[in-house]
Design goal:
The protein has 331 residues and is of the alpha+beta class. Among the domains are: 116 residues, Uridine Diphospho-n-acetylenolpyruvylglucosamine Reductase, domain 3, CATH 3.30.465; 104 residues, CO dehydrogenase flavoprotein, C-terminal domain (Enolase-like, domain 1). The chain has a five-stranded antiparallel beta sheet with strand order 4-5-8-6-7. It has a four-stranded antiparallel beta sheet with strand order 9-10-11-12, sandwiched between helices. The longest helix is centred in the C-terminal third of the chain and has 19 residues. The radius of gyration is 20 Å and the shape is globular. The protein starts with 7 loop residues before the first strand and ends in a 7-residue tail after the last helix.
């Protein structure tokens, strides 16, 4: 049985006190909301904090409400279950409700948060193992080692993004509000991520994600499709989020985002450019799917074979695009 190492739990009274605790303790401290990913990784020796700074009780991280411009503000501490079941989320951005509902199991969704899922650590077959297993193979670049077993000749970590909610939030044009020692800042959600499996998030260690703002949908339809080995629960082998706005049969706006195929969610800008201004046809959606998945480069570091996952990227992108375009399913 894997056991948790010793640590000190800190319970700040505000976001500002949280930031102070993280800043003064540096690498020895980590923030914890639901802890559904953090605690198992501590058991496996992947994370070794001396302090955990609790977030779940902070009022600033809770609530789902309207924004002045007709969008939705979602507190980063909202449970995945509350997001999946909220009437306004289901009505306005059903793709986000779907993505939240597809995370793990009902027990984990009841505790895990949308902020935690959006910022979930990258995963890989060589890192998500016990300490003794990793030691037996010489560790890896992400923790304790010097090479990446997936690509031994390189100098970077290829662990993959495993968030279900991030591709949808990027497709919806969401913004993230973070608070740190330098104050508050709001950035595009896609700017939260870096193409580096070992350090996948573009936020300072003292910063915490406070809230997510989704703009008014304004006629844009969005969907999320997930591929996984076990239908009841599992990390995504592939996630595809597609969003289209169509007027008079022509595409006005388009976003296509792939998850599970790289160290960050991949926004397929070339496919988006191809779609905008064109008449909606099955052939156009199929061509855009092919262009989108040109950027998908899955490696042999997750479940099932990487060449099959590459092929399924195109299949799922085509299905998602046809769905949001209002076309019949593929023959």
């Amino acid at each position: 049985m894997l056991r948790l190492p010793k640590f000190t739990y800190l319970r700040p009274r505000s976001v500002d006190e949280t930031v102070e605790m993280l800043a003064t303790r540096g690498p020895a401290a980590m923030p914890m909301a639901g802890g559904t990913d953090l605690l198992p990784k501590m058991k496996r020796g992947q994370f070794e904090p001396s302090y955990l700074v609790g977030l779940l009780h902070l009022a600033e991280l809770h609530g789902i409400s309207d924004t002045p411009k007709g969008g939705l503000r979602i507190g980063a501490g909202q449970s995945l279950t509350s997001v999946a079941e909220h009437p306004e989320v289901r009505r306005r951005v059903p793709a986000l409700a779907t993505a939240a509902q597809l995370v793990a199991t009902s027990q984990i969704r009841a505790v895990g948060t949308i902020g935690g899922n959006a910022l979930i650590d990258t995963r890989c077959n060589y890192i998500d193992q016990s300490y003794h297993w990793r030691k037996s193979v010489g560790f890896c670049l992400k923790k304790d080692g010097h090479i990446c077993p997936v690509a031994p000749g390189g100098h970077r970590c290829w662990a993959i993004s495993s968030s279900d909610t991030a591709p949808v939030l990027i497709a919806l044009g969401a913004k993230a509000t973070l608070v740190g020692t330098n104050g508050q800042r709001t950035i595009e959600f896609e700017d939260l991520y870096r193409d580096d499996g070992a350090a996948p998030h573009a936020k300072s260690p003292d910063e915490i994600l406070v809230s997510i703002e989704i703009p008014a949908v304004d006629g844009m339809r969005c969907t999320y499709l997930k591929l996984r080995r076990r239908g009841s629960f599992d990390f995504p082998i592939l996630g595809v989020a597609a969003a289209l706005s169509v007027r008079d049969g022509f595409v006005e706006r388009a976003r296509v985002v792939l998850g599970g195929v790289a160290s960050l969610p991949i926004r397929a800008r070339a496919a988006e450019t191809l779609l905008v201004g064109k008449k909606v046809t099955p052939e156009l959606m199929d061509e855009a799917a092919q262009v989108a998945t040109n950027r998908a480069k899955p490696l042999d570091n997750a479940d099932l074979t990487h060449f099959w996952r590459k092929r399924m990227s195109r299949v799922y992108a085509r299905r998602a695009l046809r769905e949001v375009a209002g076309l019949a399913a593929e023959a």
